[in-house]
Write a structure and sequence with these properties.
alpha/beta, 13 helices
Length: 432
């Protein structure tokens, strides 16, 4: 048997009916030289019978894991490590793909070596329950004809349907969801693969961010889309808790401005906001905050009145590499790889547990934390103050005289700073 051109890895647990739908569409592919690895987390339903029913139509291997706890991250990683092909695609149970799906992903990687291929999942709704529009449409249409309903009703499309090309974005990894994604095996291995210590929540974004850090590009695979067939999902509060826990693990590992921007923007999303608005906000904030980081790098030394006392655990928000006297310094720059002392993040979200510090010092950067892309619910400075209150006993805000190396006007007044600190109950002083 020849080496497969691509391996499709499908994690599965108690989803035999959904798995059957996915395998049914993979059995109709125009490109035949590919393998399917079903990574089953010891299901008690008829998953094995479903796989056996496709044994004559697919190069299909079923692997059963009895490891506990159940983990789609571990299942995907085990599948990738078993792949013998140069390309690997991750596809979720219940994703129905057109007959050109495999061919499209193979062609994508031939044209864009090292790039991560992202396939649309039409019908997938991250924040709300999916309706039954797609089950009704596919009752009378083949999957190959499934783009027709989208032209009549764009709400049936993937929420990323209106996006520009991912290769043109500053934060493309945010949209690299594992329900339908592909890459070269060498790319996957070099990035460390899925974090097998995770159970559920943010595991795909964690991998996508590490791929991004290694310089791998992202883009949509034109013909490599799928339809997310309606099926029950976890409760919204459970999903949010899992995603936050997963994000927190990634953020405290990397202490990254981009990860901070993503979570901050999520906090400011309204129930009616489209995903394209989220994209526009994070892209604009990424550019603006990195520009503030350039200003922080040009600031004068921290004045003596703002230095921490001997023995105090301290953090400087909006400083520069080389600053001494603090346990941590945020650089507000994604271009700086975080170290134990110098973090790339901005301090809008502080990657430390409650009560970890004695004092937080904020450079003059605070006066520029009123960018409109921050969102309507919680401003950048307001969230920073809430985070300082959470992790520290007191704060010092530097208010230097004269011109500062930051762009534009100074939209936050000292009076506004004092109002926000008082409202939060934060003990603070202002140093000149």
């Amino acid at each position: 048997m020849p080496t497969p051109d691509l391996t499709v890895v499908i994690p599965s647990y108690q989803h035999a009916d959904m798995l059957a739908l996915t395998l049914g569409t993979l059995a109709e592919q125009t490109h035949k030289n590919f393998r399917v690895l079903v990574m089953d987390d010891d299901s008690t339903d008829n998953t094995s019978e479903v796989c056996a029913s496709y044994a004559s139509r697919l190069d299909l291997v079923l692997h059963v894991s009895r490891a506990d706890p159940k983990s789609p991250s571990r299942a995907r990683d085990e599948g990738a490590r078993l792949a013998e092909s140069p390309l690997v695609a991750f596809l979720d149970c219940g994703i129905l793909v057109p007959s050109g799906y495999v061919a499209a992903h193979i062609a994508f990687h031939a044209a864009a070596p090292g790039c991560v291929g992202v396939g649309m999942c039409h019908g997938h709704t991250p924040e709300v329950d999916q309706g039954d529009d797609w089950s009704s449409a596919l009752a009378v249409l083949s999957v190959d004809d499934a783009l027709g309903p989208i032209e009549k009703d764009p709400s049936m499309a993937d929420v990323r349907w209106e996006f520009p090309a991912l290769r043109d974005l500053r934060m493309p990894w945010v949209w690299g969801w594992s329900g339908n994604i592909s890459m070269e095996m060498s790319t996957y291995t070099a990035a460390g693969g899925f974090d097998t210590s995770r159970t559920y929540g943010y595991e795909d974004s964690d991998l996508a961010y590490r791929l991004h850090l290694r310089g791998n590009g992202f883009d949509f695979v034109g013909g490599g889309w799928g339809v997310h067939y309606p099926h029950p999902r976890r409760p919204a509060d459970e999903l949010e808790a899992a995603n936050f826990a997963g994000w927190w693990k990634t953020y405290t590992t990397h202490r990254s401005l981009a990860l901070e921007i993503e979570r901050y923007s999520n906090r400011n999303e309204g129930p009616g906001d489209k995903e394209i608005l989220h994209l526009e906000r994070i892209e604009e904030l990424y550019q603006y905050l990195n520009t503030l980081g350039d200003g922080c790098a040009a600031l004068p030394p921290v004045p003596g009145a703002a230095l921490p006392r001997d023995g105090e655990k301290s953090l400087l928000i909006g400083g520069k590499a080389g600053t001494v006297g603090f346990d941590g310094v945020t650089l507000v720059s994604e271009s700086a790889a975080a170290t134990p002392e110098y973090w790339s993040c901005a301090g809008v979200i502080i990657p430390l547990p409650d009560g970890a510090l004695d004092v937080v010092v904020v450079s003059d950067v605070w006066r520029w934390l009123a960018h409109p892309a921050g969102g309507p619910q919680t401003g950048l400075l307001e969230m920073m103050i809430a985070e300082i209150y959470r992790v520290s006993k007191r704060a010092i805000f530097i208010d230097s005289p004269g011109d500062m190396p930051f762009p534009g006007r100074q939209p936050v007044s000292k009076r506004r700073l004092e109002q926000l600190c008082s409202a939060a109950g934060l003990a603070y002083t202002i140093a000149h």
